[in-house]
Amino acid sequence: MRAVTLGPAGTYSHRAASAVAEDVDFRESVTGIVEAVATTSADRGVIPIENSIEGSVTESLDALAEFEIGVVREIVTPIRHALLAQSGEFVTVASHSQALAQCREFLEAEYPDVDLEPVASTARGVELAREDPSVAAIGHPDNASNGTELRILAEDIQDRDSNATRFLVVAPTDERSKAGGKSSFVVYPSENYPGLLLELLEAFADEDINLSRIESRPSGERLGDYLFHIDCEAGMYEGRTERAFERVESIARKGWVRWLGSYDTEHVLY
Ligand SMILES: O=C(O)C(=O)C[C@]1(C(=O)O)C=C[C@@H](O)C=C1
Question: How far does residue 159's CA lie from ligand 1's centre (Å)?
């Protein structure tokens, strides 16, 4: 089994992907990961979807809507950030935008004058810190010893101890499973009238299915036109989920609905 995830080596996505496959390859963007699986150049893709402090990884939501892809697993991991640099003399902090945002309070309190540089991943920030003494990185503390030694200037710098990120494992659609206690859907109604969203929600409420998340994203077609990412606490093997799905299909008859998959949540510590 070959998995692709966000690189270079040492990202949090890499750590999550290690729970999925021994053979892990890297891409520079979430879209590139999903595309690699959709075009069958990888068996699995591991993408961050949501963080407890900073919320959605919107590029991941958009990639799930763009490509014909299935979701086969969900992995939740704690995220504990460290500040890494060659010395305390730095003027820039480089990291993934999610990581910078998760440490906003720490950075404002301890380093109010540094420049923040969003880069493609936390491990990319670590690479920059290795190359340039004026750059510090935010990433997993293990990155300090992978390659040229970096100093760990501070640990556990995330703004909340409970910081956690939810990753999805994507696979070809024919590998989706109906088993599992959660299901994910993308719904594009392609129309807008009073009560449309209420109808969508009622399809689940009437079957006594709890929604764990609903998120709207611009469809890209026109301003004010949205698609909805819906997660619910029921598997597609259950009659009630199938019935809710059929109702949603009929509400979105002018657009489309995609069942991404059913799965159980796995909590992975590393
Ligand atoms: O840059 C990384 O290390 C990633 O794996 C990406 C990512 C994210 O996009 O949320 C994953 C987990 C953390 O929340 C910070 C960054």
Answer: 15
